[in-house]
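Follow-up to my post from last week.
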Amino acid sequence: MTTAAIIPQEYGFRDLPHLMALMTGDEKHGPAATSTLDALWVLYDRVLRVSPAMAGDRDRFLLSKGHGPMAYYAVLAAKGFLAADVLPSFGSYDSPLGHHPDRLLVPGVEIGSGSLGHGLPLAVGTALGLRAQGLTNPAVWVLIGDAEFDEGSNHEALAFAGAYGLDRLHVVAIDNSSATHGWRGGIATRFEAEGWSAVTVDGRDHEALYEAYTAPHPGRPHAVVARVEPKNS
Amino acid sequence: MDTMRERFFAVTTELLDHDPRLAVVLADISTDGFAPAARRHPDRVVNVGIREQLLIGATGGLALAGMRPIAHTFASFLIERPFEQVKLDLGHQGVGAVLVSAAGSYDWPAGGRTHMAPGDVALLDTLPGWTVHVPGHPDEAETLLRHAAADGDSKVYVRLSAHRNDAAQPVEPGRFVTVRQGRRGVVLAVGPMLDAVLAATEGLDVTVLYAATVRPFDAAGLRAAVGDHADVVLVEPYLAGTSGNAAHEALADLPHRVLGLGVPREEHRHYGSIAEHLAAYGLDASGLHERIASYLW
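User reply:
Got it. Predicted complex:
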């Protein structure tokens, strides 16, 4: 496994397309491949307290939407969790980088995901577990997609988290209008109805994302719906 | 005498007082039994409501945060309903937990099929690394629960039932107990089936082994018991033949025969009592005697 400490953190946001191209061979990616890119970057660059060296007191980021993880791997490489020279192995037999991420293979990855609807329940348990150990600093973040939001397990988790006041829990919902039947009134209304703090922003606007991520939400979990261009436009 | 489930409440409540890593996750079943524990440890006894996918997902998350979670509801809702969560939120994440069920295969026949889970152990057999305890007495349940709570980060299933034997056996996790010795074959009784097996084999020249832990399967114990006469009857309180593969593997290099007795796969659309269901499945003493004797003689 890569020794993270010796990798210099030398990449910025403008390097991400190049890092993604190492995996796909394509400098221009479709909306689906990059739908999470800006939201992930602002989180890792300005919000999350995580680094390759941090242990139990770190923030937790759970990528629930494990589909199309190239942007995720690129950000992890940019932030020193992965060596960039691993990226071209994407999807090959001996690569740690699958088309869905595996926490036991990739440094910095908190959960293995790919089957939809697992991240938010896992994040609820993680928030409960940190609290039970008196660790009140770490924030728990989970990224889901708007179509993933269809999964009933998410609704079990968001209703419970709202009722329980799990205020260290945060959701980023990437909304690229890919849910088959859509969500009338927008995804944020579902969170608000269950007592969450929720805000909807332009998922390509870094300042708007940062502001939404860092909005205070005392006593309540917080959801940020990041709207990006429709997947099928 | 208390039930296995009542013992689970008492033992876990005590363990929570002494081990800060332990947490209990419930889904509205047995919340009364854990009410005193929840008052003492509000952050470590969590009821998620009637949400079984979340029950297992949150259990996985607690384990990812470094806790040793114990999740509990009826077997139908603990293993069968959220099975993908059991597979992915525990096994695939590389974390462990203790899953403790109640009701098993036929504990509440008046409740019908919805509350019967005879396939739970067979389902767990499709996943790697699960320890499966099937105690036959509250004292055994206590021994195995204490062991499971302290068993590192392993994945453990403890299957509790209202069906029980009169006396506890001196169980050790992972070891079969020799209850009776004979020469014409081996009958392996799992958990609450022991009393009926002992009555059924009274006067028959057979060895009776007792298993309160079925995974890992005590292959060495079975091999030692069969000697040079490898005829084996498995009597299990869940789907007939669930441990058939494990028995065949244990005896792979010997000529052998294995008969798997247990709960039939077909739905049994009757209500009634545990005793009536055991009789209907051929798992009472007379039904077992007939099938064991005709197989071994």
